[in-house]
Design brief:
Two copies of one chain form a homodimer.
Chain A (H helix, E strand, L loop, with lengths): L9 H19 L4 E2 L1 H8 L3 H8 L12 E2 H12 L5 E6 L3 H7 L2 H5 L2 E8 L8 E2 L2 E5 L3 H7 L4 E4 L3 H14 L3 E4 L12 E4 L2 H13 L3
Parallel strand pairs in A: 3-4, 3-7, 4-6, 7-8, 8-9
Antiparallel strand pairs in A: 1-2, 5-6
Helix pairs in contact in A: 1-4, 2-3, 7-8
Chain A binds a DNA duplex (24 and 24 nucleotides) through α3.
Chain lengths: ~210, ~210
DNA sequence: TAGATTGTTAATCGATTAACAATC
DNA sequence: TAGATTGTTAATCGATTAACAATC
């Protein structure tokens, strides 16, 4: 209802990605309607939270029926920005960087990996899928020419800030940081920490204190 | 101070992983003391939040000096469970699964990948580092014998719940879910969603509404 | 000692949940 | 119509921040 009022809390944005994942599934099953109660039960939330969350997006439900699935999918995709293609580069062509550059889920959601960079002479020039690993020093010019919008940082923590600075200076608008390091960025750039490794630590903490 | 009182809020646990990353760095630089103000400035928090967070762990600071770095590192590692080795398997030997199985950061933090499984005949038997990809049907027995504690789910979303059920029945205590699917688990098992793909959506949402 | 920094309590802020009138 | 479900307001809950006495 609030539509483009965009002060959507981060906690809500995170849940929107979950709603989209589920709505995508039910759409594929040709199911036409989904209620806040169903979404809540599926994702372990309360229906109140779901309705509150969906009030942030520009889409209305229907009394007695719930939310029309294809419409909800469209608006969630639009709100989350995955209704367009985002030109993306990966810096760091180690195991993780190479894997992400070829990760199908990224392409499917509109994240098109158009380049991959590394600093190691032994890796530069090698192939990753259709792409050839380029030297990091070529990145700034190339990113500008190719109108790259997103940079994925898949280098060791010690190099993460430096790579971030290069990407930002080259004009990317957002960074996905896969390292454990905290990256400082100017206000006009967005960063999200992927937390793959940190997640495992959260998991072991939880295991230690579970039944 | 509260020590093993373990109702540590998830938001706090997430920040503890960040404190550990930074404390690790300063320890390597032979710096002996770190204050709540420094930690806050580095990570973009308030010193109040840092002190409140550290009050959950069994470690005290010193007036006028702050926190002794190697001691803080030890207690954070212990609290987060990365002071021991966790026997871990990966299910799904696609790009992402293979990359994670070989990811150095995991090994460095004590997550020892002892097995990798897949369902595809064309992948079974192939090598991933020192490991050989095994058929998923062999997982339950193998996991029991090998005393595996953690399972990493790197299969497509549609198969994630089924793989989770197999891992849980085999006796793992925690799951790291890399798929976009929501996984339902019994109370004695912990799950953390890694959100690599979802993070990119959070990022594009942020980019759309940034300056 | 004087001053910096902790640990902790109280105040504020924000997010979740409950409740219910509106509605299809 | 009757009943299920939304949208929204108000109440609750929890997390962050401010403030300050204790302390080294």
């Amino acid at each position: 209802m609030k539509g483009m009022n965009h002060a959507v809390p981060q906690a809500v944005v995170q849940r929107l990605t979950k709603y989209l994942a589920h709505v995508q599934t039910v759409c594929e099953q040709q199911i036409e309607w989904v209620s806040s109660g169903e979404l809540a039960a599926t994702l372990g939330l309360t229906s109140s939270t779901v309705r509150q969350d969906l009030s942030y997006i520009d889409f209305s439900g229907t009394s007695k029926r719930g939310y029309e699935t294809t419409g909800l999918r469209r608006v969630l995709r639009n709100t989350l920005g995955c209704d367009k293609t985002w030109r993306t580069v990966v810096v760091g062509a180690g195991n993780l960087g190479r894997a992400l550059a070829q990760h199908e889920d990224f392409a499917r959601r509109g994240f098109q990996i158009v380049g991959i960079f590394d600093n190691s002479e032994s890796i530069i020039g090698s192939k990753v899928g259709n792409l050839t690993v380029q030297a990091v020093r070529l990145a700034p010019k190339w990113i500008g020419v190719q109108k790259v919008e997103i940079g994925i940082i898949a280098v060791p923590s010690a190099a993460a800030q430096e790579v971030g600075d290069i990407l930002i200076a080259s004009g990317v608008r957002g960074l996905l940081n896969l390292s454990l390091a905290h990256i400082v960025v100017p206000r006009h750039v967005s960063v999200i920490d992927s937390r793959v490794v940190a997640s495992l630590m959260e998991l072991t903490h939880a295991i230690k204190f579970a039944g």
